[in-house]
Write a structure and sequence with these properties.
By secondary structure, the chain is mainly α. It contains 16 helices and no strands.
């Protein structure tokens, strides 16, 4: 048990730290865009950022799904099968990345309109979209390598890669947007160079011959791609939920408050990405341990790890909420470069209401990751899908009509709480060792 707790602390702490760094891709963009381009720049970024979440979701679909299957096979000493999984993941990632690249070259004008950009923010929105979509293959490749290296018993290197990529993004954001005056393209280009820098660091895993996985000649079977996608589906939907949230919120807010409201939501949404990244880092960090325990046929270890993840999620959720509740004004002022009173009022209230949802969201993310890691993909997908759109979209549409902006902020809270109740229902129905987990989850909730 002591060894399990030490492994949990090691994997989770390293990955949470790395994910915080990774999430700073967009936070740095928000800060420098606010300083250089003002509220319209933030609004343009907020219209665009949902596509970044889709790209990240595709990378997680392949990386987490493939990495989980790889860890299970490695724990069962099925090394050749594990190599075939890695090869299939690379091929699948390349195909999906190529599709997004084509959209970036030919479809960004239509995409910008679809996302709600009006004439004032259209040029900046289109520029950001085109740049990140053209670099989509690099983002996907980075996510695949991060997941496989982490599952190859080397959690430290992905953390270094993510932090280095993020630090380079911050520096390049400043250089491109201020000394070089590259505007919105500079912000997007800085973000797109970060995964290339991360990949170059991950290459050390191969250079030192520490890798347990490699590309092999294999006959590709649809079943292999399906297995990867099935295990990565909850991570994909979890990430896509950020994109869906952004798109639905943007369209609802622009009708209520115009670009000023979208700019205020841009501050809330980009800070929410940091909180989501912390919980995602926790879930992805413990995923190799879940998969390894499952592969070795040790459900009691998986149960113990779930308890650790649940308690950690509760603690982190409380800390985040308290920091945001008492520090909202100071946080908003950092990103409200022009000192807009209207943006400050909307964002301050939004932060305090919206972030209440993270008291529940972390638990839902951890539950979904556990289910995927132990190959219970259907309930994992259900939890993620409920969070992503099935409950969220109706909540936004209904509550915004009744409570205006307050209803929009509350829709996230209501959705996450409802999903947590559904997760409790899943565990209460499962027999055997899950009963103990179910009772624990009920107490925690």
């Amino acid at each position: 048990m002591k060894t399990l707790a030490l492994d949990f602390a090691k994997y989770v702490s390293l990955n949470v730290l790395g994910m915080i760094g990774l999430s700073c891709y967009i936070l740095a963009d928000t800060f420098f865009i606010a300083k250089a381009l003002g509220p319209l720049g933030i609004a343009a970024l907020n219209f665009s950022i949902s596509v970044y979440s889709i790209i990240a979701g595709v990378g997680l679909l392949v990386g987490i799904g493939g990495g989980a299957r790889y860890a299970i096979l490695q724990s069962q000493k099925k090394h050749e099968e594990a190599n075939r999984v890695f090869t299939s993941a690379v091929v699948l990632g390349a195909v999906l990345g190529a599709g997004l690249f084509v959209v970036g070259v030919f479809g960004t004008r239509q995409l910008a309109v679809l996302l709600g950009a009006d004439a004032d923010v259209f040029p900046m929105t289109e520029t950001y979209l085109r740049t990140i979509l053209v670099f989509a293959p690099a983002f996907i490749a980075n996510n695949i390598l991060l997941a496989f290296v982490r599952n190859d018993e080397n959690p430290r290197l992905p953390m270094i890669a993510m932090l280095t990529g993020s630090a380079s993004n911050v520096v390049l954001d400043y250089v491109f947007m201020f000394p070089l005056q590259m505007g919105m393209f500079g912000a997007a280009f800085a973000t797109c160079l970060a995964p290339l820098i991360s990949i170059s660091i991950l290459a050390v895993h191969f250079a030192k011959r520490k890798n347990g996985f490699r590309l092999v000649k294999t006959k590709f079977k649809p079943a292999e791609f399906f297995t990867i996608a099935r295990l990565g589906a909850s991570s994909f939907v979890g990430e896509i939920s950020s994109a869906v949230t952004l798109m639905v919120f943007n369209l609802a807010i622009v009708n209520l408050e115009g670009n000023t409201g979208v700019a205020a939501y841009g501050i809330v949404a980009n800070l929410a990405l940091i909180a989501t990244a912390i919980f995602t880092g926790l879930a992805q960090g413990v995923q190799p341990l879940f998969s390894r325990a499952h592969g070795k046929g040790r459900p009691e270890d998986a149960s113990s790890l779930l308890k650790m993840a649940t308690l950690t999620s509760i603690f982190i959720g409380l800390v985040i909420y308290l920091l945001v509740f008492f520090g909202a004004e100071g946080i908003v002022s950092v990103f409200n470069g022009e000192g807009s009173v209207e943006i400050a009022s909307l964002a301050n209230r939004g932060l305090r209401i919206y972030f209440t949802g993270f008291l529940f969201a972390g638990l839902n993310i951890a539950f979904a990751q556990y289910l995927s890691a132990v190959e219970r993909s259907r309930p994992a997908f259900a939890v993620s899908l409920l969070r992503g759109c099935v409950l969220l979209i109706p909540a936004v549409l209904l509550l915004s009509r009744i409570l205006q902006m307050a209803g929009i902020w509350l829709s996230f809270v209501v959705t996450e709480l409802a999903v947590l109740m559904y997760a409790r229902h899943i565990w209460r129905k499962k027999p055997g060792s899950a009963r103990e987990e179910g009772r624990f989850l009920q107490r925690a909730a």
